[in-house]
Amino acid sequence: MKKDEQIRMLLHPERYMDEEINQMLDEADIAVPDAGQEWERFAKKPSRPPLSLFSKYQKIAAMLVGVLMLSGIGYAAIRLIQGSSNEPQQQPAATIENTQPVTSYAPMAEADSTQLKPVVFENAELSTILGQVAAFYHCETVYKNETAKHVRLYFTWDKQSAIDDVVDTFNKFERFHITRENQKLIVE
Question: What is d(CA 25, CA 97) in angstroms, rounded to the nearest whole number?
Answer without folding.
Answer: 103
